[in-house]
Structure formats: structure tokens, C-alpha cells
């Protein structure tokens, strides 16, 4: 691999046969996913799931996009207590997925951190390409903000997302309406895509391969270019900060930013570069790898004593911060796959424990870093009192 990988400034037009191939791939995948969802809904009609959101709501500005709302398990909905609020944006390459994909994650986080968690929705490419999803999310966030029936503490708001949802979280937070009206104190992104200029085959070279780990196979996805072709209009500037948040100005993002990479994911390198760039640190070369070549000694824990895996940069007396975390020995989706996906109980247990561990860190960061000024101004409960133990 060269020091500078193959990069593009604008979205190219593909040859006819390539367009037919990519279009067939994405439409087939969407139809298969729709069929599986239809079958799951019928199954749940007869066998209702034990885990359900407290509310499913639709708003007039986007009636076709229901959102899902989770309260902490023991929250008294008759209480006047306002809750810190986290908006979550699901992944799926801008083309697939749905809010319920994040139900387990959202319910756990809501209870763990005594927060209101709202799963957002958006229309999918290729029928609805960039920037449709960003403006869908903008409309829904503002609608929720104006919904007086929800016990939101509007001084304590965070926006987060997974993979494509992480990209969308970093993008929607740049919009003037979100910056000026919603004013989220924090944004966090997990397994996120931030640089559309680099071809997927180049990104696949920028991560360690650990063939001894059975879950390494999940890092070898070749769908990245199909999703990009479906989402990005031909000829569009790939350095547009709403498309590639790596190129966003620091002042256009929320004051507190937490970027979470996953070591075996082909997106880990660009996430690492963005974290260093935002923190004012030296940006890693394309030839450097995020993480370490060998598996971690402790397969069930995060690595919190190595700057390759974690660091925090705090500026302006705590008014701005950038936090980086790299989850070792896992690949994209590790925090969403069911235990049946893994071929061993040990691998499933390790993924679960690391998911809970990073959720704990994100919540601590929100309480003790991003939301501290709001707590102080409002005279609300101290940060340590907002946390709930979760098992």
C-alpha cells in the first residue's frame, strides 16, 4: 500500500453494466430484508417480544417515519422529572436497516444511565439519496424537541449513531437549525463512516487482520461501494462535510465528540484519523494501522491504558472535548449481533461485555463531561446520581 491511497474528489459515473450490477445488488438486498422483516412482524403478532419501546410515535412533518422511545425501566411516567435525552440513528449503509435494530442497545442504555433514548428514522437510498436522510433526521429531532408530552431535559441532549447512522449523526449536527435550536452538547458515533473520498478496497488495507479470531470474517465486507453508489449523487463533491464529516469544521460540530472505532472494521482508520484531527493531534498516516497486530490478552475487556485505543483531549477549560475509543478484536456489528450469530459462547460473551463496557463509558462521558455545564446551570441532580447499575 502507498502512503496515499486511491482517492476521488467527486462521485464518478459507473459504466452501464456496473450500474446494472450495483442496482440489482441493492434492490435484491432491500427486497430480501423487507421479506425478512415482514416474516418477523407476523411472528411477533403471534409471539409478542418481551422487549418493546414505551412509545412509537409519528409526527406530521414525517408521518411515514415512526420513531421509537425508551424510558428507563423504573421511570415513573407521571413524575415531573425531566430526563437527559439521547437521539440514536440506526445503521445499514444508508440503504437498509430500521430503528428497531437498536432496541436492545437503546433499552439497556436508557436504564443504565437514567436517560430518554429516542430511535430516529429516515428514508433510504437509492430511492432517497443524499441528503434526504439528513433532512429527515433534522425534521424529526425538531418535532421531538417541540413535543411537550416527552419529559426531555432540553439542556442535556446527545446525538449518536452506528455506522451510516454515525455518519448521519455527525452530519445532522452540522445543520444550523440543530446547532442553533436543539444545541446538542454531544455527538457520538460507533463504527462510523466519515470519509467518502477513499475507495472501500483501500480502506480494507488499513486494518489489522487477525485470522485466529473467528469474528474477523465480518470485517471483510465488500458492500461499501454499493452503498456509496446508491447514496451519493453522481458528480457530488465527496469532501462535502455533510457527506464526509471528516472535512467538517470543528466549530460546526457539537462541543463534545466521542468517536468509537472497532479494530477489525475497515472504517476504523478514518475514525481514528478524524479523532486525532479534531483533537489537534498528529493525524496518522494511511500506512499506520489502528490498534495492534496480535489479539488482546484479555478478550473480554476494553484496553484503557494505551493511547492507540483511548485518549481524550479537553479544551477551553472543559467546554470542548474529543474522546477516542477503539474496541479491540471486534468487527462492525459486534454490539448488535445476537448470540446465535457467534460460533462459540466465548466470542458472544466477549462481544456482549465489551458492548456494555463502552456503553458505560459513553454514559459516564455524557454525565461527567458533556452535560456538566447544563447540570450546573439548572441546579439539577448531580451527575453521579443519574446513573443506574445495569446487569
From TrEMBL:
SUPFAM superfamilies in UniProt: alpha/beta-Hydrolases (SSF53474)
Residue ranges annotated for the Alpha/beta hydrolase fold-3 domain, each copy included: 86-285
InterPro entries per the UniProt record, alphabetical: AB_hydrolase_3, AB_hydrolase_fold, GDXG_lipolytic_enzyme
Pfam family, one: Abhydrolase_3
GO molecular function: hydrolase activity
Keywords recorded for this protein, A-Z: Hydrolase
Name by which UniProt lists this protein: Alpha/beta hydrolase fold-3 domain-containing protein
Species name: Xylaria flabelliformis
Amino acid at each position: 500500500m502507498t502512503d496515499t491511497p486511491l482517492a476521488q474528489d467527486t462521485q464518478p459515473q459507473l459504466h452501464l453494466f456496473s450500474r446494472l450490477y450495483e442496482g440489482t445488488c441493492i434492490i435484491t438486498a432491500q427486497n430480501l430484508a423487507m421479506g425478512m422483516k415482514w416474516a418477523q412482524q407476523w411472528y411477533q403478532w403471534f409471539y409478542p417480544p418481551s422487549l418493546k419501546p414505551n412509545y412509537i410515535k409519528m409526527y406530521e412533518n414525517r408521518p411515514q417515519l415512526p420513531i421509537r422511545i425508551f424510558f428507563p425501566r423504573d421511570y415513573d411516567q407521571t413524575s415531573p422529572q425531566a430526563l437527559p435525552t439521547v437521539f440514536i440513528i440506526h445503521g445499514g449503509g444508508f440503504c437498509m436497516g430500521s430503528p428497531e435494530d437498536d432496541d436492545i442497545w437503546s433499552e439497556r442504555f436508557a436504564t443504565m444511565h437514567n436517560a430518554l433514548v429516542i430511535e430516529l428514522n429516515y428514508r433510504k437510498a437509492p430511492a432517497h439519496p443524499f441528503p434526504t436522510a439528513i433532512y429527515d433526521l433534522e425534521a424529526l429531532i425538531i418535532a421531538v424537541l417541540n413535543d411537550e408530552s416527552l419529559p426531555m431535559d432540553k439542556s442535556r441532549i446527545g446525538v449518536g449513531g452506528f455506522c451510516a447512522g454515525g455518519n448521519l449523526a455527525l452530519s445532522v449536527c452540522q445543520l444550523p437549525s440543530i446547532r442553533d435550536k436543539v444545541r446538542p452538547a454531544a455527538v457520538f458515533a460507533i463504527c462510523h463512516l466519515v470519509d467518502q473520498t477513499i475507495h472501500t478496497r483501500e480502506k480494507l488495507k488499513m486494518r489489522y487482520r487477525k485470522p485466529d479470531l473467528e469474528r474477523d470474517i465480518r470485517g471483510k465486507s465488500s458492500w461499501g461501494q454499493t452503498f456509496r453508489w446508491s447514496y451519493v449523487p453522481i458528480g457530488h463533491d465527496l469532501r462535502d462535510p455533510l457527506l464526509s464529516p471528516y472535512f467538517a469544521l470543528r466549530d460546526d460540530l457539537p462541543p463534545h465528540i466521542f468517536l468509537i472505532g472497532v479494530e477489525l472494521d475497515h472504517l476504523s482508520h478514518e475514525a481514528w484519523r478524524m479523532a486525532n484531527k479534531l483533537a489537534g493531534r498528529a493525524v496518522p498516516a494511511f500506512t499506520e494501522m489502528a490498534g495492534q497486530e496480535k489479539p488482546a490478552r484479555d478478550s473480554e475487556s476494553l484496553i484503557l491504558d494505551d493511547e492507540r485505543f483511548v485518549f481524550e483531549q479537553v479544551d477551553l477549560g472543559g467546554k470542548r472535548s474529543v474522546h477516542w475509543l477503539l474496541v479491540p478484536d471486534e468487527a462492525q456489528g459486534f454490539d448488535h449481533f445476537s448470540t446465535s450469530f457467534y460460533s462459540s459462547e466465548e466470542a458472544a460473551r466477549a462481544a456482549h461485555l465489551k458492548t456494555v463496557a463502552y456503553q458505560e463509558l459513553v454514559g459516564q462521558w455524557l454525565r461527567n463531561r458533556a452535560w456538566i455545564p447544563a447540570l450546573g446551570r439548572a441546579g439539577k441532580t448531580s451527575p453521579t446520581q443519574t446513573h443506574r447499575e445495569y446487569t
